Amino acid sequence: MFKPCKKDGGAAAWLRGLFFVAANTLFVAATASADVTPTVTRTVGPSTAGLNVPTTFTFHVEDPDGNLNGWEIAYQNPSGGIGQFITWQTIPLTGTYEFSQAVTFPTAGTWHIWVNARDSVGHIRDPWLNNIADDRLAVTVSAVNGPPTVTHTSGPVTASIGTPTTYSFHLEDPDGNLNAWEVAYRTPSGSVGQFVAWQGIANTTTYDFSQSVVFSTPGTWQIWVNGRDSNGLVRDPWANNIPGDRLTVVVSTTYSTPSYTPSFWNDASTIQYHNNCYNYSNNRRTDTYAQPGRAAGQTATTMSASAVSSAAIADGLEPAGSSTAISPSGKTLIALVIWPNNDYHWYRRDSNGLWSHKPGQNLATNIDNSGNLITNPESANRGDYTVFAGYFFTPSDSVEGQGHASIN
User: Fold this and answer.
1) pTM for this prediction
2) 71 and 183 inside one domain
3) Are 267 and 236 found together in one domain?
4) Mind listing the pLDDT tens digit for each residue in 92-126?
5) Residues 347 and 280 sit within 8 Å (Cβ to Cβ)
6) CATH of the domain at 93
7) Shortest CA distance to 166 belongs to which of 249, 238, 235, 254?
8) pLDDT tens digit sequence for 250-291
9) What does the alpha-carbon distance between residue 135 and residue 130 come to, in Å, rounded to a whole number?
10) Does residue 358 form part of some domain?
11) Whether residues 230 and 271 fall in one domain
């Protein structure tokens, strides 16, 4: 009987082995390259909560593929309904992600809360659909007194610096013991404070009011209302991380020039006697007889053009070129003159293009020492103020006395 030689049989075995190794290599490579769903969806937080009380939980998700890119917070309510506290939120690709979020339970009973995770391929780990009981946190919600449940703010989303802007606020507390409110803000630099501190009201379920506020710096602000009940429980959209209750307002840097309105300044009382030419030209009532540089700690020590100019610049005034200069942001043109070694004096250009001034405690007027309308302070009769020191821009306002210069 014919038998193949030993050498040929060895070659055949070698080929079979090679095929086996190659096939397994392809299988391993295919297995290694397959994307998997996120592997961790953990929820940590209190197992009890008050009805309608914002309660904060911490969520942790992982995906070893490094392409985790979305999360949502889901629940099962006491009646068995499934839903989302927060629907899918996108994040940059990552392997791990952790965050905290406050949620509010609207009915009493036993709830379950969990986080779903999604990767960039579309694979989802859902502790409910995937029946991962350990990833769902049971929370017993009790119908106890809670803080106010609604703190809503509405109004303009743009405003001008220094201009009073009115907003409407609505608060609710189903317990019927809402008894105080305050209007709060976050500045463009991140500082948090109050436009109006706590104001008491009679116990109620709902409360609506309007309030005017003034934004002091340009940029993006947030404004909201805080509510407090008679037990001291507070709903604070900032502290409780409720961004939907905070209104974002973009405040512009556009200023405006006042009209000639001497009656505001000529009251024969506090305004007239405690506000001088520096107040008047800057259109800023301070009742402090403002001095150039004092607010900045750099008051002029001599009555010279250079010394007083430097002091005014320290207050934030900007040098301007001529009597016809125009500010791109709408600032008002003012002029400085000097009585050498004795005094300074300021003029301002009003919205009608003419100039006016207020000599010390005297009346505001638009005429010079010769009784003529002032069309140009350089050529006007200024009496002893013989040195013309230059023009400046100041951040004024169309409302008399409400300029925005930092003077004192």
Assistant:
1) 0.45
2) no
3) no
4) 999 999 999 999 999 999 999 999 999 999 999 99
5) no
6) 2.60.40.3880
7) 249
8) 887 778 899 999 999 999 999 999 999 999 999 999 999 999
9) 10
10) yes
11) no
